[in-house]
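The methods section describes the discrete structure representation at length, but only in general terms. An entry of this sort, consisting of the sequence and the corresponding backbone structure tokens, reads as follows:
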Amino acid sequence: MEDSSTFMKPNIDGFRFIERYLGITNPGQIHFFDDKAENIKGAKDAGWNGHLVANDTISQIDEAVSSSCSSN
């Protein structure tokens, strides 16, 4: 049995597990928000869009999603 920390952020295996679980085939479509830079790095290493958030989380998420939608 694998150590459960294998599937915890920022370990890339944790991000890959989520992809498989959700059936995601294009990790570049995933937007990941977190308040820790190390977790953002893990997400980006997995090919996800990582966004570091702070106090005004909702507006930061709204801005990232709006930007993503306008670029598609």
Summary: The chain has a mean pLDDT of 88. Strands lie at 31-34, 49-52.
